[in-house]
Specification:
The protein is an alpha/beta fold. The protein contains 8 helices and 14 strands. β9 and β10 form a beta hairpin.
């Protein structure tokens, strides 16, 4: 008799709770876990930063007033470390200017204490739904299908169709990672780009991608342009560091 496979269960989202009031943090964690979520409590901003550099999280509940630094400055550190995670500010600060700042710096929502746990769970689920629907449009971490076309070294790149068109009017499909590499270079002209920064921007900060794999994609990009009579002299290797895209020819790096 064939056996019926067990039903697939959806993975539980991991919510990082950054809150220095231990009793409140544990209460929040308790209610979220009862609602089908996993939690990680961090009582200091730097504890949260260290955790998020090594682990993927679906969302962060972030207090503004922490003992070691503000929640706003932690959010800035996360951005600088290229860690993209939805954030709901969870704080006793009810001033409107603070709420506005929280949303202006990129927060996804702002919940003031005291709060209803049912409402908190509902807000978390709403943010998770929004971020998941946005991710559906991503081709790579740094490119979405809604992005505008751009010119790169004589070719026209169209993210909406994952296509690249050359001066000889030939149009070819472009691989996702090749598209991500071209888009990142196009967005950072004249800057020395480390291998790690390029990998993190295209594959994600937690991706296990070796430099050798990146090199193979770079070779594919160069070969693609060469096959249509275009050179990538403006895209140079900076030995020991990474690359530079220098379309204006103002840098001596990589020469």
């Amino acid at each position: 008799m064939p056996t019926t496979p067990p039903p697939r269960t959806e993975p539980k989202p991991l919510i990082v709770i950054v809150e220095d009031e231990e009793e409140l943090a544990n209460l929040v964690a308790h209610h979220l876990e009862r609602s089908g979520m996993n939690t990680q409590v961090c009582n200091r901003a730097q504890h949260a930063l260290k955790f998020l550099k090594k682990n993927f999280a679906n969302l962060v509940l972030l207090d503004i007033n922490l003992p070691d630094q503000s929640g706003f400055s932690l959010m800035e550190e996360l951005k600088n470390a290229d860690i993209a995670v939805p954030i709901i500010f969870l704080t006793g600060n009810v001033e409107e200017t603070s709420k506005v700042k929280g949303l202006d710096v990129g927060g996804d929502d702002y919940v003031t204490k005291p709060f209803s746990y049912a409402e908190l769970v509902a807000r978390i689920r709403a943010v998770l739904r929004r971020t998941e629907s946005k991710a559906d449009l991503n081709v790579t971490k740094n490119v979405r299908v809604t992005d505008e076309p751009f010119d790169f070294c004589g070719a026209r790149v169209t993210p909406q169709r994952l296509e690249i068109t050359f001066p000889d009017n030939a149009t070819q499909k472009l691989g996702r990672k090749e598209l991500g590499i071209l888009a990142y270079l196009n967005a950072h002209p004249g800057q020395v780009i480390t291998r790690k920064a390029l990998i993190h921007s295209v594959w994600g900060v937690h991706a296990d991608v070796k430099s050798r794999s990146l090199d193979q994609y770079i070779v594919k990009v160069r070969d693609l342009f060469s096959a249509h009579g275009l050179t990538l002299d403006a895209f140079r290797t900076v030995h020991g560091i990474g690359y530079i895209f220098d379309p204006r020819g103002v840098s001596t790096e990589g020469r």
